[in-house]
Structures are given as structure tokens and as C-alpha cells.
Amino acid sequence: MNKDFITFEHITKSFDGETVLDDLCLNIKENEFMTLLGPSGCGKTTTLRLLGGFETPDSGRIFFDGKDITTLAPNERKLNTVFQKYALFPHMSIAENIAFGLKISKKSKAYIDDKIKYALKLVNLDGFEHRSVDSLSGGQQQRIAIARAIVNEPKVLLLDEPLGALDLKLRQDMQYELIRLKNELGITFLYVTHDQEEALTMSDSIVVMNQGYIQQIGTPEDIYNEPVNAFVADFIGDSNIIDGIMLEDRMVEILGTRFPCVDEGFGKNQPVDVVIRPEDVELVAPEDGIIQGVVSSIIFKGVHYEIEVKANGFEWLVHTTKLHEVGSQVGIQVIPFNIQIMHKPESSDEEATEIDD
Amino acid sequence: MIKQSRQLLAGPYIVWIIGFIILPVLMILYYAFTDAAGAFTFSNVAAIAEPIHLKSLLLALKLGILSTLICLVLSYPLAMILNGLHIQKHSFIVFIFVLPMWMNFMLRILAWQMLLSNNGIINTFLQSLGFSGINLMNTQTAVVFGMVYDYLPFMLLPIYNSLVRIRKDIIEAAKDLGANNVTVFFKIIFPLTLSGVISGIVMVFVPALTSFVISDLLGGGKVLLIGNVIEQSFMQGMDWHLGSGLSLVLMVFVLVSMAFMNGKGKDGEGTAVW
Fold it and tell me: Residue A299 pairs with which residues in a beta bridge?
């Protein structure tokens, strides 16, 4: 878990003159479940396809287990891919699909039969050998696609938004299946998604990307609790992002009111971005709050209420299990530990690049 | 009620099918099994066994198979090249290959007459290079030339269509699983285009087998196909009974070849003729 297994070194890639990845550097450790997370067009799929061998970088090198594989053809790489739309071979049975890679590497028939049985058991589809691809549901096809990839015992499994086409319930089931598979197989997973919840659930580490640049790398807890900039904070979950001024160590001014916080070292009277998660905003009696506001809307979300409170000219997003009436007066209270202070990017460009160092 | 009124909409088609397909076939059946006096006879159908008829049938089969094979060998690589061009507008390619069909069929064949004749462009060119001229006109070669030229789009388009339909990620998946380009072609691309190939074969072989205009114009009466024999017995011999009898035999060959190809293409998707 501590050895760098795959290394991207200063990778740049553009399509039709449009830069998709700019000087990307990334290390993936052995047996790690790493997720590339970002909005569409952020370069996450391109990163995966570069590793799969379906694209070649304009500049930079890719190392796999110490070897330079930058220009190696896909069929010569010891890794397998699970595609977004499954990409099963429509003219073959399930068994033939799974056996495809094994037949190419000229394994014995007994070995192949064994492997097919093992793989189908692993993805909970025993006895599906002779079914046709058309007769399977989306979730079953996806599991066959995973089985087809893992029978080849790849050292790395690449997954390109594999759950994107499934409905919510199935997606959640498959997330647990994938975590179980990863633990059973003990191989490295590189997973691409735009779904932050999926990333938080499954990953050992998350790489948040935007506009071809890596914004932040860290564990799910790090990314959620300590976002390094407004983009990450906004992309991972809901948040209140407010302009503030760091008056001095451990004291920030938000919307004209002083809030005690825990951050230090920003200097005096520095403009900053302040992030407060909606579940960290406490609604209290007006006289107990740091600032006061009026409840402007309530939406029932099942687990909690999503409440908007207008206070000091800002719509505060609040998640709480307690019901408040629309129009009622409330006080807003945030404990110092839950106030996250971030440097303001000096230009809009820097918002994308500042994490590179 | 709704179902009934919907069925009424099919009325015109039923009239069409009865008037232009079923009745003519019944008439051919009637003529095929009667003689000039209207009495029942097998002799019109049995006439296929006469040496001259048998010879023309075998020649039609030979030239038909040859043209189909040449069309296939030319079309498959061409379709692959066109598919590999990554042209955004696929309809443009289809347009280019259908364009010659906008010209009158006779004109296209007559153009080949000009090209192939003894004083034609090809011979003039060869002679200007110092070669002796070759006799192309009124040979089987000329007829095959004409058939290949005329029927090539019917082979190319179904193959091209089935190639276009293969999703790129399926090819990538095969490569990802260790397949090199040769394996990808034989295990993935060719099996997935088989139905297109079969459609193409049927759509070229059937008209080639029954053709008589091409052999008439480019064969100059020296290449007598079964289609020419049937045409002559209707138009020149005025023997509708013999013509119908031979047509019936030819129809059996067409149906057998289509049924055979259809059986081969069972697992293919969509592009089969029936």
C-alpha cells in the first residue's frame, strides 16, 4: 500500500488544439482504490484512457511497475478496463465474453472453464454461462463486464463511470460489490466518476480534477472536511461559500459579523473564502445566535430538512432534523472548528492551477 | 373498432400486393403448366433440361457467382477504409456511392460499351502505349465488368452500414483484453458484419443471376444467360408458356439461394434481407 505503482509524469494532452490535461503529475499506490472525480470535461476520462493505452500523451511519460509504458499498445499492458457502456461482445455468449482474454493468452480449456465459474460466482451470476448478452439487465451486463476484466488477473482495474447507466438502488448495491471485490482481489482500482457520493463511499483516495488540473488529492475525509479551495468545497457536497476577512488569528469577519474560528497564519485583514457545511450550521433561538435571520424555505429530504435562512443578506443553506416554520426568526450558530478558511485565488486561472505545487 | 379502422389503412397495400405480385405469379404458374391449347403439361418446366437452356442457366450461375465474389472482395476493404476515415457526415459517403444510380441504367451500361469496344477508350489507350488491342466487347469478361460496376453499391452499402454500427468501445474492449489487430478483425469485426455481407451477397447475386440487359448490351448476343433465354421466348418467340416455365425454375434457384444465405446469417443483427 505504500509503493508507487503507477506514475504519471508531466502529462499534457490536447484534442483539436484544446488542452484537456496540462502538466499532470499523479502517483497511484499498489492495492489502492483511487477515484478521479470531477465534472465532465475535467480530463478524468482522458487520464484513464491514457493509462489504458487508448490515447497517447502529447508530452510526458507514464510508468507502470517501474516500466515506461507511454507508447505501449493497449493489448500489451497488464491492466484491464471496465467500460462505461459495458462493451460486451454482442455476438458471443456470456461464457465466450469472459473467456475472450484467456483464449488470447492461450490458457487451457480446463483453466478457462474454471475461471469462468469462479468469475461468475464472484459477481453473483452463477449459471449465466450460456445466456446471451441481450437477455441481461444493465446491472447484470455491468457485472459480466467486470468478470470479463478480472479473469485475466490484471494488476490494475480501470473503471470508467461503470455505474453511470444504472438506477440509484442498483448503483448503491454495485458500490458495495466493488468494495468487496477490491478487498477479495487485492488489486489496484482506478475509478472515474462525476458522482461525489460514489467517490466518498468507495475510495481510499480521491483526486478532484477541474479543467485538466488536479485540485486536491486526499482521503474522502480530507476532501470533505478540509477542501483546499472553493471549487472542491462546492463540488463535494453542498456548502455555504462566503466572502470573509481574516481579521487576525482565530477570528474571521463574515457578513459584517465576527466569528471565532481555529485557523491561523493568514495574516491580518486578509480577504478569504469561508466554507461552512450545511449540517454544521446550527439553528438556535434568535438571542443565542451569532447572527439572526428569517427562514425563507424548507424542503423535506427524508433524512433531514433542507432549510434556507436569510441572514445579513446571505442565503444560508442548513441541514437539520428539526422543523422550523417558514418566516420564523432564528439565530445562527457555528462552532469554531467547523469554519473552514481558504485563501482566495488571485485570478480565475489560478483557481484551477494553484494546487500544482 | 380502432384496430379495424387501422387495418383498413392497409387496404391500398393489399390491393397492390394482389394486383402486382400475387396475380402475376399465378399467371406465370398458369402459363408454366399449360400448353398453347390450354392443356396441362410439364414440358415447359422440363425444358430447362434441354442442353441450350441448361448451358445458359449454368453460365448465369457462373457469372453471377463470379460478379458477387468480385463485388465482395472490392467492397469489404473499401467499406473498412471509408469507415476508418472518421468522416462526420456518413450520409455524404452514402450519397457518393448512390450518385451513379441517379443516372439511367441503360446509359451506364452503354457507357461501358464505349469503353470496352474495339475502338473504345481502353483499346485506344493500350494501342497508344504500343500494345496490341484486346477484344473485350461481347465477352463474358465484359458482362462481369458490367455486373460488378452496376451492383457494387448493393454490396458496399450493407457492409458499410454494419461496420458503422460497431461501437468503438467494443473494439477497445477487445484490445484491452489482449487482442491484436488481426484477432480483433477475425473475432470481432468480421462476425459483427456477417449479416451485412450476407445481405450484400443476396442483393448482388439475385439480380446478377436473373439479369438480361447487361448480357444483351455488353455480350452482344454471344453471352446467352438464362435471363436472355426467358426474355427471347417472351418477346421474340412469343412462347409465353416456355418463358413462364423457365422463369419458375429460375425463381426456385433465387429462393433456394436466399434461404441458404438467410440460414447462414441467423445470429447477425438487423441488416439481413428477410
Answer: A306
